[in-house]
Structures are given as C-alpha cells and as structure tokens.
Specification:
This protein folds into three domains: 10-54 and 215-246, no CATH class; 56-214, Herpes Virus-1; 259-479, Four Helix Bundle (Hemerythrin (Met), subunit A). The protein is 49% helix and 9% strand. The chain has 17 helices and 14 strands. The strands form six sheets. It has a three-stranded antiparallel beta sheet with strand order 1-8-7. Strands 2-5-6 form a three-stranded antiparallel beta sheet. Helix 13 (343-387) runs antiparallel to helix 14 (397-414). The chain is elongated. One of its GO terms (molecular function) is ubiquitin protein ligase activity. Residues 436-478 form a coiled coil. This is RBR-type E3 ubiquitin transferase. Its main location: nucleus.
C-alpha cells in the first residue's frame, strides 16, 4: 500500500482559540477602498467561533464573590447563606430573589445558622442526643432548624463528611433534617488546618460545577476554569494547556452532533465494543490481487503495492469511478422491508446499520492518529531540508497549515457519523448525507495530496485546502445547532 499520514490530534485545531483577544489575532484586516484597517468580526465569518476566557483560581474566586456579595446585600443575609442559595439555584440571582420574596421564611429556615449569643444563654446542662454526654448549654450549637448538638459531635460530623468528599452538601445531623450547614458554621467547628483547606477546596469545586457559566478544563493536571456568558455546545479552548472541549457538556468537541446524541453514541459504542471488534482490524485484502494490505496512512484512497490497483478502503470500490459514487459509499441504505421481517431479522438489520456507521467513525479516528504520525515524519524531512539549505521553515509552512486543516476537517467528518446514525429518514437526512459525502471526498483528496506534500504542486494543494474547508463550513452552517 502507498500512503503515509499526517496530523490527527485535536491540537491541530489551535486556530480555533476562543479567548477574547486571541480570537482576533487569527484574522486578516483589510479595506480595499481607502486602505483603512477594518477588523473582521469572527462571529460573522466563523460558524464555530466561541468567546470564552481562561481563569485561574484567584480570578474565579473573585467572580464568585462578586455574585455572593450582590445577593447578600440584596437579601440582607450572610455571605455563607448566600452561597448556599446560589449553589442550590445554579447561581441564578433573579430566580433566588423572586423565590425569596414569595417565600421568605422557607429560604431562611434552610440557610441561616442559629448560634445563640452568649448573652442569651441560660447556663444549664444538656444531654447531646448523639454522644449522650451531658454538658453546659454553651457547648451546644444548632443550625436554623434548632437541632442542637455538642461541639465535639459537630466537629466529628464535619470531619467524616469532608473525608468522604462532601462539602456543600453537609446537612444537619438530625434524622430526616435537610438543612444545610453554611461555610462559616462548618469552618467554626474545624480545628485542623488541613481539613479546613480540604473543605474549602471541595466547596470551590462544587461552586464551579454548579455554575452554568464555568467549566473546569479537562486537560491533564490543568487547574484552569473556562468562563463564558454563552452556554452553548461550542468549542471552548484553554489558553494554558491548549485543550479544547465542548463547553456545554465538557467532553470532546463534537460538532455537528448534539451533546445528548454524542453521549448516547459513546455509550452505545462502549456497550457494543466487543461486537464491533472484528471490524477494527488494520488489514484488508486487495480487491484485485487479494494480497493482504495494511493501512498505515490516514487517506482512504489506497493503492496496492503489488498490482498498483487504486481502491477505497471503506467500500473496496474502484477509485477511478469513486468520485461519482462517493455518496453511496458514506450513505447507509435502509432496508425498506425491515418493518415486516421477524424480530431476529430486525435485530440483524439494526446491527448492520450500527456497524456501518461505527466502522466509518472508527476509521476516521484511526486516520487522525496515522496522519499525526505522518506530520511528525514530515517535520523531520523538512528540518533536514532546512539544514541542507533547501529553503527556510517559512517556505515550508504551507505544508503544516495543510496538515492542520486536514486534521480539522477529518475531525468534523468523524463526528458527522453519530449525527447521521440517529437522524430520521427524510429529505433533511438525504441532504446531510450528500454534504457529508462531498466533504469526505474532498478530505480524501486533500489527504492524498498532503501525504505527497513535498511533490504536490503548492497551488494545487492550497486550492484543495480551500475546497475542503468550504465543504466543512457549509455542512456546519446547515446542520450545527447554535
């Protein structure tokens, strides 16, 4: 087989960075009339544009405290009580204020701690219902529910809860009492410094997870929090570790597939992984000479190293006639009579349909990894050329730009298959599959040229890059739910 590969990681999408300032750096500025500089609005030119910020812990704390202070001043409650309300209402200040006005007593009962002032304490002995020890009443404390327990029991209760990873969800010790303990009450009963720090760390994580505009970066060992006012299934980008992900659901970016659909698809793939293992082999027989061929590149345009026959890795069809039949290659043909067949036949047809989409999904995932290996090899060869005086890195930069674009296009194409799998039959699905096939054809043409980048005409390569990206953006504009 003839064919190498090129970059396939999500890192190839670094041109999609979404911090407020960096997004504009990737666009040209021009004005053909009077040569004045005009800023191109990425919101109008890039369907995947998403404005977000990468915040450190201190910046997040400041943002959260501003909201706490706003609610605390508005309702005249303690900051700790405000935090309990905000956490339980997803930091929706207007909703909390409305609820507060409608049912003031209910909110106060569930949030305010009631520590009796020393001046009002009538010194007497009380027996704690937990440890059954009798102590002076000044050793007893309660939340707004008035369930009193001794200080030692509160301390033990909090330590146990915190060691189990619970923080904002710590409630009163009384049976069937759901009143939550505010921060100030918990910290008052924690003597050990390490427990106080662990508790504050847990509460911070809970606050961020409950805030709809905040997401922890999923990058390895990254403590950055991504902030955006728009809660959409768009690609968020961490400017620190360069990780990209879907802001709405927090998993890998998956346009054009919706969050709920990609979760269903990934669950199904995990459940049916053993069934699909047989289609994951790296080798197939040449359809002409039957010699075993290993796919070691991302391109699906294969050429047998023995008989030089050109064919498609996916459908095994002759590549010479593949351009006109590409729509049939990526499209699954439904059995019109499946509804009238037996349950066994229907189950077999369902499995056949799933395997059709899974094979293409998995194939593009592998192609991305293989093309990443090709990019590494390409960088090595270009470096040798530069060291030999055959141009500079700038002269060869267009090859890496092509590699990054190929990765971005193939990544989008991979996620079109879960989208198509769950689509209902009809004109809209037919249009989607047509655009999907067009994109796939142009991606394979681009992959073929990139794998032979050093011998491919630069103008031809750049023209193919333009065509592939237009196919990708057209599909996203028509089917990406924004």
């Amino acid at each position: 087989m003839d064919g190498q590969a090129k970059q396939g990681s999500q890192g190839g999408e670094s041109d999609m960075e979404c911090s407020d300032t960096e997004c504009f750096d990737d666009y040209d500025y021009y004005n053909n009339d009077d040569n004045e500089i005009e800023q191109i609005d990425p919101k109008k030119t890039d369907i995947e544009y998403f404005s977000c910020e990468s915040l450190n812990e201190e910046q997040v704390e400041r943002l959260l405290n501003e909201t706490v202070e706003l609610l605390s001043n508005n309702l005249q409650i303690t900051p700790s009580s405000a935090k309990v309300l905000l956490h339980s209402h997803e930091w929706d200040v207007p909703a909390i204020v409305r609820n507060y006005k409608e049912n003031v007593s209910n909110i106060r009962i569930r949030t305010n701690s009631a520590i009796v002032p020393q001046s009002q304490i009538c010194f007497r002995y009380i027996t704690c219902s937990v440890c059954v020890t009798t102590q002076n009443s000044d050793k007893f404390f309660s939340l707004s529910c008035s369930h009193s327990f001794c200080k030692d029991c509160w301390m033990t209760h909090f330590e146990v809860q915190i060691n189990q990873g619970i923080s904002t969800g710590i409630s009163c010790m009384a049976r069937d009492c759901g009143v939550l303990a505010p921060e100030d009450f918990v910290l008052k009963h924690l003597a050990r410094t390490n427990l106080r720090e662990k508790y504050q760390q847990f509460t911070f994580q809970d606050y961020v997870k409950s805030h709809p505009c905040l997401r922890f970066c999923p990058g390895p060992n990254c403590s950055i929090v991504i902030y955006s006012k728009e809660i959409k299934a768009k690609k968020a980008f961490c400017s620190y570790c360069k990780t990209s992900f879907c802001f709405k659901c927090g998993i890998d970016y998956h346009a054009p597939t919706e969050c709920i659909i990609i979760k269903k698809w990934l669950t199904k793939c995990a459940d049916d992984s053993e069934t699909a293992n047989y289609i994951s082999a790296h080798t197939k027989d040449c359809p002409k000479c039957n010699i075993c061929i290993e796919k070691n590149g991302g391109c699906n345009h294969m050429q047998c190293y023995s008989c030089k026959h050109d064919f498609c890795w996916m459908c095994m069809g002759d590549w010479k006639t593949h351009g006109s039949e590409y729509y049939e290659c990526s499209r699954y043909r439904e059995n019109p009579n499946v509804a009238y067949e037996s349950a066994h036949a229907q189950a077999r047809e369902a499995l056949k349909k799933y395997l059709h989409y899974y094979e293409r999904w998995e194939n593009h995932s592998k192609s991305l990894k293989l093309e990443e290996q090709t990019l590494t090899k390409l960088k090595t060869r270009i470096n040798q050329k530069v060291m030999s005086g055959l141009g500079t890195w700038i002269d060869w930069q267009y090859l890496f730009t092509a590699a990054e674009l190929l990765a971005k296009c193939r990544y989008t194409l991979q996620y079109t298959y879960p989208y198509a799998y769950y689509m209902d039959p009809g004109p809209r699905k037919e249009l989607f599959e047509y655009q999907q096939a067009q994109l796939e054809a142009e991606i394979e043409n681009l992959s073929w040229k990139v794998e032979r980048a050093e011998t491919t005409d630069r103008g031809d390569l750049e023209n193919q890059m333009d065509i592939a990206e237009k196919r990708r953006t057209t599909l996203l504009k028509d089917f990406l739910d924004v």
